[in-house]
Design a protein that fits this description.
Layout: H1 2-22, E1 32-33, H2 36-44, E2 50-53, H3 57-61, E3 69-70, E4 90-95, H4 99-111, E5 115-121
Parallel strand pairs: 1-5, 2-3, 2-4, 4-5
Amino acid sequence: MKQLLLLALVIIVGVVVLRMYSGSKPSTPAYQTLTAEEAKARLDSGDSLVLLDVRTREEYAGGHIPTAVCLPNEEIGQDVSMLLPDFNAEILVYCRSGRRSKKAAAKLAKLGYTKVCDFGGINNWTYETTTE
């Protein structure tokens, strides 16, 4: 009888532990979210960083933030290490409205980039843009 109670206790504890851990999701790589104002402050700080426009090349040519590099969201996931060789560099990501930049930031974080910041869309950017 003691053995049966001990076995039941072990099973109950095991079930409780399994339920606790099965409810937790594996952690996904994180990125930060910034406002346009915070991104502008980061750009103005003089710190070394990468400004990444993840719109299409045509959208980029139509107007972008000065110093931005174009890497369309659809191309992230392929080998981007030639364009972004430093996995510890601060990368500020934007698109038109914020949808693609969010996806791109998540992809970059998953690829191992450690300082990714999404600041949404150029639609909310009230500062200088260029077509050069």
